[in-house]
Amino acid sequence: MHLTSARRTLVVTAALGLALASAPAVAQPQATASTNAPVKVTVTVKGPDGLLFKGKIKTKGHDVTTATGGTHRCDGTNGGANPSAVPTPTAALDDAAKKRHFTWDGTWYASFDDYSVDTIKNVSGGGIAYWNIAVNGTSIPVGGCQFKLNAGDKVAFTWTAF
């Protein structure tokens, strides 16, 4: 019986060796570019009386601070929308405001893990309107801190009556 057991062990070892030798190589993860690399986008702000701002802005996801909402991350990971930080529309608005010296304000909603943009350049919805966010002509389906922007995107904040 000892000889039979040794043969089985030898056959199993040989079969396992052949199986491992013929198995496809496991792909190793390759280094990828940062998903939060700065991108250049065009930001447009249209109020009830027309254009309030338009310009090209270099942006990436980052913490945002508003007078009403405080400081919170706004990098696309909000609400689990993206697995890693990415540029977002609200971060782009914040960068535009800092670069071009205008103000904006927004309320932070913890339940949505996002801001509601309330005022841009002293223009507020005041209960009769809101700031709609669109990218490339389409209203975004998530909050402005959750939507991923790509280089060349056109981001529009438009005062929209109810």
UniProtKB/TrEMBL annotation:
Pfam families registered for this protein in UniProt: DUF4430
Positions of transmembrane segments: none
Domain Transcobalamin-like C-terminal: 119-160
Keyword annotations from UniProtKB, A to Z: Signal
PROSITE patterns given in the database record: TAT
Signal sequence range: 1-27
InterPro entries: TAT_signal, Transcobalamin-like_C
Protein name: Transcobalamin-like C-terminal domain-containing protein
Organism: Streptomyces nanshensis
Source species taxonomy: Bacteria, Bacillati, Actinomycetota, Actinomycetes, Kitasatosporales
